[in-house]
Amino acid sequence: xxxxxxxxxxxxxxxxxxxxxxxxxxxxxxxxxxxxxxxxxxxxxxxxxxxxxxxxxxxxxxxxxxxxxxxxxxxxxxxxxxxxxxxxxxxxxxxxxxxxxxxxxxxxxxxxxxxxxxxxxxxxxxxxxxxxxxxxxxxxxxxxxxxxxxxxxxxxxxxxxxxxxxxxxxxxxxxxxxxxxxxxxxxxxxxxxxxxxxxxxxxxxxxxxxxxxxxxxxxxxxxxxxxxxxxxxxxxxxxxxxxxxxxxxxxxxxxxxxxxxxxxxxxxxxxxxxxxxxxxxxxxxxxxxxxxxxxxxxxxxxxx
Amino acid sequence: xxxxxxxxxxxxxxxxxxxxxxxxxxxxxxxxxxxxxxxxxxxxxxxxxxxxxxxxxxxxxxxxxxxxxxxxxxxxxxxxxxxxxxxxxxxxxxxxxxxxxxxxxxxxxxxxxxxxxxxxxxxxxxxxxxxxxxxxxxxxxxxxxxxxxxxxxxxxxxxxxxxxxxxxxxxxxxxxxxxxxxxxxxxxxxxxxxxxxxxxxxxxxxxx
Lengths: 304, 208
Hints:
The complex is a heterodimer of chains A (about 300) and B (about 210). A 5-stranded mixed beta sheet of chain A has the order 3-4-5-6-7. Chain A has a 5-stranded antiparallel beta sheet with strand order 8-12-11-10-9. A two-stranded antiparallel sheet of chain A has the order 1-2. By secondary structure, chain A is an alpha+beta fold. Chain A folds into 2 domains: about 1-195, no CATH class; about 200-295, TATA-Binding Protein. Chain A has helices at about 5-30, 35-45, 65-80, 145-150, 155-180, 210-220, 270-280, 280-290, 290-295; strands at about 85-90, 100, 110-115, 120-125, 130-135, 140-145, 185-190, 200-205, 225-230, 235-240, 245-250, 255-265. Chain B folds into 2 domains: about 1-75 and about 185-205; about 80-165. In chain B, strands 1-2-3-4 form a 4-stranded antiparallel beta sheet. The longest helix of chain B is centred in the C-terminal third of the chain and has 33 residues, at about 150-180. The radius of gyration of chain B is 31 Å and the shape is rod-shaped.
C-alpha cells in the first residue's frame, strides 16, 4: 500500500481538531457560572464522540467517563446554590469524581449511569449505595428518589451531621431543582422543599384504620400523642414541639378516601425527611406501611 | 333544647375540660362522651341532658382500676403481648429463612442432576440411596416453602391482634394520665361524675 504523507497529515489535523473541540468544552465547563451554560456544555460533553478521531487514540489514565463530567457539572450547580462548600475529589486510581458536601463530612457522593433506555444518571451516596436523585440532562428531568433518601437521612453519617446539616442539604438540592426548573426541566422533589411541605400525597387510597392505629401506638411508646384533627379537617395530627405533622383525608370524585401529609412549620425548616431523621418511630412506621403511606414519586426511573 | 344542651355541656366542660361531646343525630338530647381528643378515643359515657345523667362505661372504669394497681409502666395486656410476640418472632424467623431454603433446594437439585448424569457409574446402589436422601431433603424443604403464604397470613393475624392489645393499653394509659392530671385518683373522678346531677342543681340554685 502506498503511504500518502499528505493524507496522513490531513487526518492528523482533523483528529487534532476533534481534541481541540474537546478541550474547548472542558475549559468552558470549568469557567461556566450560569445554569443554562453549564447544562448546554454538559450536554455537549456527554454527546461528544471521541472516536471521531481516527488515528489519535486515547489511552490514558486521565480520560474520564461521562459519570465524571456529570459530577463536575453538578458540583458547579451545587456551588452556585449553597454557601456550604462543595469539593470535587478524584480518589487515587479512580476515574469518577466524588462529591463532598461540607455539611456531610462523613459522606461522599458520585454519579452512576441509570440502566434505562432513556439514559440519565443517579446521584448516590457511595458507602451506603443509596440514591438521592435521577438526573437526565438530555430529556431534562430531575427527580428525587424518596425511598432511598428517606433511608439515607437515617444513616449514621447523616445522623451524626445533625438536623442543621440536613436542612442545608435539602435547601441545596431544592435550589438546584429550581435552577433546573427555570431551564424547562421536569422536576419532582416531593417533600424536599421547605416552602412546599403540604399536600404530599400518599400512594394508596382508602387506608385501613389499622395503619393509623399503628402510628398511634408507636407514637405513644415514645410519649407522643396522635390526636384527631380539629376544625372540620378529617384525619390525625402529631405535634412535635412547634411542628405539626397532619395526616389528612379527603374524598375524591369517586368517593375514595385520599390521604396526604401536611407538615406545618412556621419557621419553614422542617420537611418530612427531617421528621424521618428525628423520629425513628415515624420512619419505621412509614417503611412498614410503605405500599400504602409512601409518598408518590417518579418510581419508574429508579431501577435497582 | 339547644340552650339546655349548651348550658349543660358548658358546665360539664368547666368541670371536665378533657371531655369531648359528640351529638347523636337521631336523639338531640343524647351525647356521646369521650375522654381526650386523641386518635380513636374511647367513648366513656352517654350524657342525657334531659335527665342530666352521665351513664358511664363500667368496663372502662374497672380497666383503669386494674391498671393503676400494676407497677409503673406495666399494662394489662403485657403478658398476652409478650406471648404473641414470641409466636410472631418464630413466624418471622421462618419467613426470613425463605431465601436460604430456596438456595438449599437449588443446591439439592444440582446434586440430583449430577447423580443422574453419573448413573452409568459403578456405584449404582450407593447412588440410589444418595438420590433418595437428597430427594427427601428437597421434598421437606419444598413442603416448608409451601407453608409460606399460610405463615404470612398467620403472622399478619397475630400482628393485628398485638396492635389491638397495644392500642388498648395506650388508650388506657392516656385516659388515666388525663384524669390524674385533674383529679387525685380515679375514685375522686368517678365520685365527681356521680355527683354531677346534685352539683349542677346546686350551681343553678346559687345563680338564682
